[in-house]
UniProtKB/TrEMBL annotation:
It comes from Leptospira idonii. Residues 272-291, 351-373 are annotated as: Disordered. Residues 1-25 form the signal peptide. This is Uncharacterized protein. Residues 363-373 have a biased composition (Low complexity). Keywords: Signal.
Length: 373
């Protein structure tokens, strides 16, 4: 090979290597850009989740929302760590160092995968627990409180209540009513209650299937294969699918509570914030008890942020047991503690707070609603 031919060969080799370098740089920049948008979506969706379910602090106690560094819940700590890594990736990205940026984004993706795996299990377990509790009696001392199966048996078409009591024509006031009028809502709500049970368990089953699908990804790989970013993306999306399906199941459980206990929110309509008086079989009246919302009782009927319709915020809806009101807020994408501060304690409306004599927020406890699972 003469000198001229050698020079041409070297020139071709240099141009080829230069072209490959440019192509590689473009490919990594594109990957980094796509991963940047993908992770931002995940972090945004995780924010209300980890604020509602922060986990225990290092000492094993439930954590508060604005806990100082070192005292935050373990889920919130992992979320902050993922955000820190993502921010480092952004810095490299805007510097033009796409390789380092992409590596940081992959680290963040791994952290998000671990968080969503654990959170999806938590959501499935809480949804299953809420469905079971919603099907049973809420107050064992109340004769009008019925389990879901009892409602199906006692108030369905062909039952004694329907045939021999409610559906019999009577001439008022000469014929006395032979049933408690507070039972009638079971007749009208029976189908909706049963349908919510059906949908709740269907959503729960789909949530479990989505989580199992995500867990099987690694098992389905060949021995020589390793998890790739595309595999982790698929798993994360299935974990989020399980979380959202579990939220749907929780929403069905909440609907059952609302349909079974329509009178529990009576306290919102009276200035004393008391529950509705009850009457026993002998006609003796028992006065209602003051209702506490997030540890506070005051005249909720004057609260400008209370709405007696579908917009009613979770913390005011005592038809739902106290331990599940954070789930009630979470199904709407709300943060329970932030809503509580703004709507119960009127954090940003100090003048109205003085007018209504709203007390200050109680100190955090291990059993109050100021803490989260």
């Amino acid at each position: 090979m003469n000198g001229r031919a050698m020079k041409q060969s070297l020139l071709i080799l240099i141009l080829t290597l230069a072209t490959q370098t440019v192509v590689f740089a473009e490919a990594v920049s594109n990957k980094a850009y796509k991963k940047r948008i993908e992770l931002l979506t995940y972090l945004r969706e995780l924010e209300p989740i980890v604020k509602n379910f922060r986990g225990e602090d290092p000492e094993g106690n439930p954590s508060v929302l604005n806990a100082p560094e070192g005292k935050e819940g373990f889920r919130f700590k992992k979320y902050n760590e993922a955000k820190r890594i993502y921010q480092e990736g952004l810095q490299y990205y805007f510097e033009g160092n796409y390789v380092a940026s992409y590596q940081r984004f992959l680290e963040c993706q791994l952290g998000v995968e671990k968080m969503t795996e654990e959170l999806s299990q938590l959501y499935v377990l809480r949804a299953e627990e809420m469905m079971k509790v919603a099907m049973e009696r809420k107050n064992a001392n109340n004769n009008l409180d019925k389990a879901l199966l009892d409602i199906s048996i006692e108030y369905g078409k062909g039952s004694y209540f329907r045939q021999d009591v409610m559906d019999q024509p009577r001439e008022a006031p000469f014929s006395r009513r032979m049933y408690d009028p507070k039972e009638v809502h079971y007749v009208y709500n029976k189908y909706a209650i049963e349908k919510n049970m059906e949908l709740g368990y269907r959503h729960l089953g789909l949530a479990k299937d989505a989580r199992v699908t995500a867990l099987k990804v690694e098992k389905n790989l060949e021995k020589h294969q390793k998890l790739q970013p595309s595999h982790r993306k698929y798993r994360i999306e299935n974990y989020f699918g399980a979380i959202n399906l579990a939220r749907d199941s929780k929403a069905n459980a909440i609907n059952i509570f609302k349909l079974k206990y329509p009178y529990d929110n009576y306290y919102l309509n009276n200035s004393q914030a008391k529950s509705e008086p009850t009457r026993d079989d002998n006609g003796q009246v028992t006065d209602g008890q003051p209702v506490k919302v997030d540890g506070v009782t005051y005249d909720f009927s004057k609260n400008p942020y209370v709405r007696f319709d579908q917009r009613l915020q979770a913390m005011f809806d005592v038809r739902v047991p106290e331990e599940y009101r954070v789930d009630h807020a979470d199904t709407k994408g709300r943060v329970y503690d932030i809503d509580s501060n703004n709507l119960v304690f009127l954090k940003y409306d100090q003048e109205r707070k003085k007018e209504l004599n709203v007390p200050n927020k109680p100190a955090p406890t291990t059993t109050g609603q100021t803490t989260a699972p």
